[in-house]
Structure to design on (1235 residues):
């Protein structure tokens, strides 16, 4: 379990729903509103029950802002002071959100470790009072109950949650390089046991209501309701409140037991867990796995383990102290700041800055039922958009349709959708070999072979059948969109949509606009991408756009490193050691050696020697021998029955392209910086040339599309934190040996010259 | 809500089940201005055939697992058909077609209509087919018959419904079935042994049928509990309504009003002549029960739900000319009908709310024109939710796209002889019981128009307007 835990962490997937913190506006407004009477917390007394309703008037979600905490403390003091009140129900009046977490701006506003530690201690104090409340408090949870919200809920005596799909409980702090800092590391292990608590806190994953009930995180579940005399959402919250009130009274009347009934297995498990040598065993196993997965690059998971351990071994006082101090320390780490930056970036890339398109895409046609085409089809049908999947052979089509079915069926197996929902989703998909129905398409995405002639051919065929307002999007990793659009009768309707494989797992979508692409076309492409659940960046047209262009020089360098005699395993460990989730050699295998060669050749032509380094012929020889990577079973590695080993025949090829390493720039660290600096320099050049509109999209694209180390926050934040001057210095050393591949671009030089110039606004 | 008011005594002064004689009741009802204030004098339309209900019968409805336990579904259907033959005296070859509705099919008699017809002694020259539409299966059988007559294809059709819950098909697991089917094809002893050897304990787990929606995997009781919660129907209201149903059914039974029931000599057992699920209890007793589906805070219990029932029903439907030619005095005209369907998850049991305004609109009547209401009672919570939905302008506008509510049927006209909660609910057979009861009540109470409405699994619903045959 913990393996999966940490694996998920290193993959770094911030889920769309995991909104830990409110937008920047809320703090400002909450300060302003402090002069008003209670705006966030309202208390209604129903007989002997106080129903406390939470709602932040300035935001879609509730956060534990200063204002919220202040009002909550006031209300609770009144409740405790009122002898007529016997029990309390805590509920949010916002549909879809209980409390989504603490207010990040509150933490970001702090200037020192001590200040953050104090914040944590204040939170701990409030929740301690809640926990020790003489009047039972029932948390009635509907919607997201995350971070500080979850810590609040678990401090209450009893928890009732709706079975709504939006009801999720979790501690996503780790994904922001933090830890649950208001008692979470202390209460969770006691409530759900060490293994479950570590799983939750180290992965940050969302727990659905039914799972939460099984884990013992909530006591009772309430069904969601359909239409009645009020809207389903409104009535469901009312019903939740009614049930919670009954529970609260039940606790007072001693009809409802607070200790859960345990079966024999649970009792045995609890007993076993109570031995300290068992606990120690768990700590060491978890620590080992965390270290293995994070390579020691992420401080938060280790601190979480430390806090849990302190509490279990030295008692609550030590535990709470460790928690608040470590929370303070973590908040000041560059890792946390980078991750928070990514979070904000991700939120920004979930918005359509091009406005609402004139026409919503209701029918999408996809050309090419390969991996990418079928992947796009899957994420589209899931959003109930009619999708036509067209290919030229029945075999390819069959394979594509099967891929969509399998993707959905896997979700059925995981019980995230029912088999009926799977079938109903699939009914949006039409597989076909001809162009029938294209006259109704609002958008066509071609995902055919990466060959300009073929792209031109399909573009012409498609334009003959589609309506005039239909957008033509090309999914290409490297071909310039304007070259593709050259064959179009209406270039303003042509746009690039670069998806990443596997489409249903990778969050990024890179949209490429030419100078002829209309704003509405772009808006339409962005809107579709967002609907498909993607994080969208919009970049200018040019060879390799942004992502491919950054990747290519790094891969070229990786080939040179191989030629210098470093084996693929070592290369992989150097790259993952730097924080990439996938090593460079494995990545090339995944991408396809043929694709990588094709890409390198094209970009090499466009950018010249700057994209050189490794010998392209090495890749070409591999392709000629059939070593096309993962898909052909052989590449840098041999893939057999789930195992991978270095391709034994590779050595011979590499030896024929052998290069002598220069010792001065060949240490492990040098190799890492050779790889990373070429990536980063190219990214900065993209901003300099206007391919990128802003550094935020550059960071998001690199992290979500290429696996740039998340804790570094993306190439631009890396430059800010590492120091442009230091990077330039390193590059100049490399430049002396290798030439112009390491020449820093002008923008990077500018930043090196003036240390006050940063790509991102400084966060203290 | 007081029991009295629920019983519909509002207009009548005092609870008519608590002392008033039937005669008084009838006098008072007759006092109500009937035909004079109706929106329409008759629903007869020029150019449209008048289709009549000649008569309707049913077997006693028994709780499953009781006296009928050793029978098969077609035995019940056969008995209903024989009862209809006896009651109407129709010659065994004078019927053009036979249609039956059923839900849980016995695989041996999947066209139960044909097996029952042959067994009942109908001519083997009469074709028969079976339809299924969950709890409105026999409504579907009747409206199919109406359609055939209206289209001029038939003049006399027997429609009916049957459900037998004492024995349901319990299947081997899919894995086991696959192995067994392969076994049939295995040619050599070795191949057979290999297949037999592949059987694992997991293969032996049987598959039980459930009263659950295939699409949502939710049991109907669970959905009913959510529905009641959505409409804010309390446990007490549900228990009160269930008590009303049982009390009214008991009274109807005692007074001999359930004349559609025909006695059944069960082979090897006694003659059954009465429904056996009618059990008026007390509010205190009912309050003791724990919720059956949504635990621990649900409101639907065994006492305020309909129970698993065995039973069959049959009706004789003819064109008016044919009925008159054969010398019958029909009981009622079968007029407009509608089928509706909606979201099977959150509106599974709201069929009557959707169907009622639609069928009234079709026939040009208002709710106030209806003298007799017979609604299928799947759950007390379902009935009360439907009544609230029909009485809500917001619901009508938001979910039904109507300008205003249709109104809630007055309880003094509503299910006065009990309902599915008390009489029992053999899924496939209930529809014919509702229609026959409306015809009998119209006659007894002197009304002109009756309305049948029912919900069904799959989020479907049905309603039909019935007009009394002139006395």
């Amino acid at each position: 379990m913990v393996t999966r835990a940490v694996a998920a962490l290193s993959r770094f997937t911030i889920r769309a729903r995991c909104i830990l913190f409110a937008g920047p506006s809320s703090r400002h407004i909450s300060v302003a509103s402090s002069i008003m009477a209670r705006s966030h917390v309202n208390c209604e007394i129903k007989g002997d029950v106080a129903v406390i309703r939470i709602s932040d008037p300035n935001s879609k979600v509730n956060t534990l802002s200063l204002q919220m905490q202040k009002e909550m403390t006031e209300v609770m003091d009144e409740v405790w002071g009122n002898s007529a009140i016997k029990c309390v129900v805590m509920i949010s009046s916002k549909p879809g959100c209980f409390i989504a977490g603490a207010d990040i701006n509150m933490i970001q506003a702090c200037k020192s470790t001590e200040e953050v530690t104090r914040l944590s201690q204040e939170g701990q104090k409030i929740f301690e009072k809640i926990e020790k409340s003489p009047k039972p408090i029932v948390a009635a949870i509907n919607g997201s109950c995350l971070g500080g919200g979850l810590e609040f809920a678990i401090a209450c005596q009893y928890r009732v949650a709706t079975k709504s799909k939006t009801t999720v409980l979790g501690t996503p702090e780790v994904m922001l390089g933090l830890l649950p800092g208001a008692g979470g590391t202390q209460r969770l292990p006691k409530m759900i046991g060490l293994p479950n608590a570590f799983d939750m806190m180290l992965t940050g994953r969302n727990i659905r209501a039914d799972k939460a009930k099984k884990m013992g995180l909530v006591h009772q579940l309430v069904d969601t309701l359909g239409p009645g005399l009020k809207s389903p959402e409104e009535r469901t919250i009312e019903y939740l409140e009614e049930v919670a009130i009954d529970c609260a009274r039940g606790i007072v009347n001693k009809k409802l037991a607070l200790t859960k009934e345990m079966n024999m297995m649970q009792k045995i498990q609890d007993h076993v867990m109570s031995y300290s040598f068992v606990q120690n065993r768990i700590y060491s196993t978890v620590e080992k796995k965390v270290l293995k997965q994070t390579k020691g690059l992420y401080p938060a998971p280790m601190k979480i383990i430390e806090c849990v351990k302190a509490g279990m071994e030295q008692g609550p006082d030590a535990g709470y102290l460790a928690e608040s101090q470590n929370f303070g320390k973590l908040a000041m780490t560059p890792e946390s700041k980078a991750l928070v930056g990514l979070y904000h970036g991700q939120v920004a890339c979930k918005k359509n800055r091009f406005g609402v398109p004139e026409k919503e895409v209701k029918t999408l046609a996809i050309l090419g039922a390969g991996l990418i085409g079928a992947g796009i089809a899957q994420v589209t049908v899931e959003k109930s958009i009619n999708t036509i999947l067209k290919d030229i052979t029945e075999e390819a089509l069959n394979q594509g349709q099967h891929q969509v079915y399998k993707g959905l069926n896997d979700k059925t197996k995981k019980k995230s959708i029912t088999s009926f929902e799977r079938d109903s989703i699939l009914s949006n998909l039409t597989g076909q070999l001809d162009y029938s129905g294209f006259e109704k398409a609002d958008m066509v995405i071609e995902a055919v072979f990466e060959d300009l002639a073929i792209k031109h051919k399909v573009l012409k065929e498609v334009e003959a059948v589609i309506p005039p307002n239909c957008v033509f999007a090309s999914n290409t990793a490297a071909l310039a969109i304007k070259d593709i659009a050259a064959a179009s009768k209406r270039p303003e309707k042509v746009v690039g949509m670069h998806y990443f494989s596997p489409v249903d797992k990778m969050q990024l979508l890179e949209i490429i606009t030419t100078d002829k692409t209309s704003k509405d076309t772009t808006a339409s492409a962005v809107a579709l991408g967002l609907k498909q659940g993607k994080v969208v960046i919009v970049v200018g047209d040019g060879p390799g756009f942004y992502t491919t262009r950054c990747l290519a020089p790094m891969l070229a360098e990786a080939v040179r490193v191989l030629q210098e005699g470093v084996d693929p395993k070592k290369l992989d460990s150097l790259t993952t050691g730097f924080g990439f989730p996938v090593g460079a050699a494995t990545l090339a295998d995944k991408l396809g050696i043929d694709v990588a060669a094709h890409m390198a050749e094209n970009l090499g032509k466009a950018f010249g020697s700057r994209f050189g380094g490794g010998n392209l012929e090495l890749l070409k020889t591999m392709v000629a021998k059939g070593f096309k990577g993962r898909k052909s079973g052989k590449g840098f590695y041999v893939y057999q029955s789930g195992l991978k080993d270095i391709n034994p025949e590779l050595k011979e090829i590499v030896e024929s392209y052998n290069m002598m390493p220069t010792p001065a720039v060949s240490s492990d660290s040098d190799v890492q910086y050779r790889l990373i600096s070429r990536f980063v320099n190219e990214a900065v050049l993209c901003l300099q040339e206007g391919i990128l509109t802003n550094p935020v999209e550059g960071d998001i694209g690199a992290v979500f599309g290429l696996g740039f180390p998340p804790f570094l926050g993306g190439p631009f934040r890396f430059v800010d934190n590492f120091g442009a001057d230091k990077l330039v210095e390193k590059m100049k050393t490399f430049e002396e040996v290798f030439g112009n591949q390491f020449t820093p671009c002008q923008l990077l030089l500018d930043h090196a010259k003036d240390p006050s110039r940063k790509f991102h606004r400084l966060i203290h | 809500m007081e029991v009295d008011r629920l019983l519909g005594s509002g207009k009548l002064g005092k609870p008519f089940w608590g002392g008033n004689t039937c005669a008084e009741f009838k006098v008072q009802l007759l006092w109500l201005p009937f035909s004079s204030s109706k929106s329409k004098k008759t629903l007869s339309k020029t150019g449209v055939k008048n289709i009549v209900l000649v008569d309707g019968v049913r077997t006693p409805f028994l709780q499953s697992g009781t006296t009928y336990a050793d029978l098969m579904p077609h035995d019940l259907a056969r008995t209903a058909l024989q009862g209809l033959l006896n009651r109407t005296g129709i010659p065994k070859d004078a019927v053009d077609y036979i249609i039956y509705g059923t839900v849980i099919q016995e695989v041996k008699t999947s066209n139960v209509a044909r097996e029952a017809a042959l067994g009942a002694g109908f001519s083997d020259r009469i074709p028969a087919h079976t339809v299924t539409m969950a709890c409105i299966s026999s409504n579907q059988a009747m409206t199919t018959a109406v359609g055939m007559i209206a289209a001029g294809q038939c003049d006399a059709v027997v429609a009916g419904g049957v459900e037998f819950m004492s024995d349901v098909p319990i299947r081997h697991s899919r894995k086991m079935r696959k192995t067994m089917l392969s076994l049939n094809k295995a040619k050599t002893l070795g191949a057979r042994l290999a297949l037999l050897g592949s059987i694992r304990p997991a293969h032996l787990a049987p598959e039980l049928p459930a009263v659950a929606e295939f699409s949502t995997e939710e049991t109907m009781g669970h959905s009913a509990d959510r529905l009641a919660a959505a409409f804010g129907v309390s446990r007490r209201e549900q228990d009160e309504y269930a008590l009303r149903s049982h009390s009214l059914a008991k009274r109807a039974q005692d007074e001999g009003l359930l004349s559609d029931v025909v006695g059944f000599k069960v082979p090897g057992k006694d003659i059954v002549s009465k429904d056996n699920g009618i059990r008026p209890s007390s509010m205190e007793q009912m309050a003791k029960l724990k919720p059956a589906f949504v635990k621990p805070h649900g409101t639907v219990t065994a006492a305020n739900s309909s129970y698993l029932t065995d039973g069959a029903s049959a009706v004789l439907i003819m064109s008016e000319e044919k009925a008159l030619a054969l010398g019958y005095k029909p009981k009622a005209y079968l007029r407009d009908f509608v089928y509706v369907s909606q979201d099977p998850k959150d509106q599974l049991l709201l069929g009557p709310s959707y169907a009622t305004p639609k069928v009234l609109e079709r026939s040009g009547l208002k709710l106030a024109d209806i003298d007799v209401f017979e609604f299928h009672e799947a759950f007390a919570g379902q009935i009360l939710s439907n009544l609230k939905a029909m009485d809500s302008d917001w619901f009508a506008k938001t979910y039904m796209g109507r300008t205003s509510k249709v109104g809630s049927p007055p309880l003094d006209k509503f299910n006065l002889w009990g309902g599915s909660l008390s009489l029992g609910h053999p899924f496939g057979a209930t529809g014919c019981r509702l229609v026959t009861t409306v015809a009998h009540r119209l006659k007894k109470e002197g009304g002109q128009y009756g309305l049948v409405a029912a919900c069904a699994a799959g989020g479907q619903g049905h309603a039909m307007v019935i007009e009394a045959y002139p006395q």
About this structure: The interface with chain A takes residues 214-217, 222, 225-227, 229-232, 294, 296-297, 343, 345-347, 385, 388-389, 392, 394-395, 398-399 of chain B (CB under 8 Å).
